[in-house]
């Protein structure tokens, strides 16, 4: 029996359909079916079972974690909403519009990676003192080239001394088995007027998040507000517009009224059923076209999940020039959209709205473009 990692309810409702689906690491490596996915009957949070197998798999993923298309020197994957944009630049611009940031201050980026957010923040706010926190120092050179010597802190958040005016945690909370405790550590390290910025994926908008093996918790707006409340934070800004299908939140320590209403979007069973439908549609398309004439649009988590589900793909198509050439995980070619082999079949393996938007942009390229089916609400 497993208890909820948010509200400690002693049992979860398990989704049996999850056990039949292949998975993918957050570094985009395909993984076979495994693990358990449950829903808390009290707070509604969707979460993995944090058993020894889950922990071991996470350690395996993180020990060799290299994001495809992201170099150690800061080439950042783009975010697509029908067109490409740099994720960190969009976030920093939005923060400048949403917060009254002074000319100077201190920022800690938890899970800073190779420093993309720090780099974008430095360009917009050069008077701030910047630090990054990571589990190891593999990106020390890249981070300290932006922020100065000693700016990369390594280890756990509990070991970080001092306080900061702004703490950012981009795509961190969904990896944590103890999110409420993490928020407590954040609160202890904020200055008196400090704020926390969180960004994370929304599974109801992007069901592919459910099959990311090392995501411990799968959030919607309601479950995130529940976690923030239990961690002693009050949101002052929420947006699903900065990065599509993701939630960006600015929160400050405190308590206040918040909406415990039902989140909009598909239920868990519908989302898992949709993933199975995408897999089956793509399998039929590949069988009809032949492997070498079958491609997948994208090279991120969704595309590599589908690769694992099918066992192979002939090629990939991607807007991002840094990902074009050869897919290092499969050895298969990655074409720019305009270079897609004529007459081939390509599944645009993305959430329905984005899949349809990309179809409108590429439909004049002479290939058989297939969009993902509608997602039932």
From TrEMBL:
GO biological process, one term: methylation
Gene3D superfamilies attached to this UniProt entry: Vaccinia Virus protein VP39
UniProt cross-references to CDD domains, sorted A to Z: AdoMet_MTases
Keyword Endoplasmic reticulum set for record: no
One GO MF term attached to the UniProt entry: methyltransferase activity
UniProtKB keywords: Methyltransferase, Transferase
Any coiled-coil regions, as ranges: none
PANTHER family according to UniProt: TRANS-ACONITATE 2-METHYLTRANSFERASE-RELATED (PTHR43861)
Name of the protein described by the UniProt record: Methyltransferase domain-containing protein
Organism: Pseudodesulfovibrio cashew
């Amino acid at each position: 029996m497993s208890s909820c990692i948010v509200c400690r309810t002693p049992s979860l409702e398990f989704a049996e359909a999850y056990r039949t689906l292949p998975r993918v690491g957050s570094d985009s490596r395909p993984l076979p079916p495994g693990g358990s996915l449950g829903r808390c009957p009290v707070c509604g949070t969707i979460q993995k079972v944090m058993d020894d197998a889950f922990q071991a798999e996470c350690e395996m993923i993180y020990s060799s974690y290299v994001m495809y298309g992201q170099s150690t020197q800061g080439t950042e994957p783009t975010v697509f909403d029908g067109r490409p944009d740099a994720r960190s630049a969009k976030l920093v611009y939005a923060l400048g519009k949403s917060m009254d940031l002074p000319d100077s201050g201190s920022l800690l980026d938890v899970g800073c990676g190779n420093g993309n957010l720090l780099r974008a923040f430095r360009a917009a706010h050069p008077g701030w003192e910047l630090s990054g926190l990571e589990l190891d120092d593999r990106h020390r050179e890249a981070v300290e080239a932006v922020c100065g010597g000693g700016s990369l802190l390594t280890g756990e958040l509990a070991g970080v001394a001092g306080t900061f005016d702004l703490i950012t945690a981009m795509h961190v909370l969904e990896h944590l088995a103890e999110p409420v405790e993490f928020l407590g550590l954040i609160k202890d390290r904020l200055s008196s007027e400090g704020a926390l910025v969180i960004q994370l994926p929304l599974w109801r908008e992007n069901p592919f998040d459910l099959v990311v093996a090392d995501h411990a918790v799968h959030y919607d707006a309601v479950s995130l507000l529940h976690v923030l409340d239990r961690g002693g934070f009050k949101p002052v800004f929420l947006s699903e517009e900065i990065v599509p299908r993701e939630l960006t939140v600015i929160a400050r320590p405190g308590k206040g009224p918040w909406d415990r209403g039902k989140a909009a979007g598909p239920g868990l069973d519908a989302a898992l059923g949709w993933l199975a439908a995408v897999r089956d549609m793509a399998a039929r398309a590949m069988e009809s076209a032949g492997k070498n004439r079958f491609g997948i649009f994208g090279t991120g988590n969704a595309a590599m999940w589908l690769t694992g589900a099918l066992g192979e793909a002939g090629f990939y198509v991607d807007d991002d020039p840094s990902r074009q050439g050869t897919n290092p995980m499969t050895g298969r070619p990655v074409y720019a959209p305009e270079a897609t082999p004529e007459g081939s079949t390509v599944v645009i393996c993305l959430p329905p709205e984005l899949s349809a938007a990309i179809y409108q942009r590429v439909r004049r390229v002479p290939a058989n473009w297939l969009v993902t089916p509608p997602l039932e609400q």
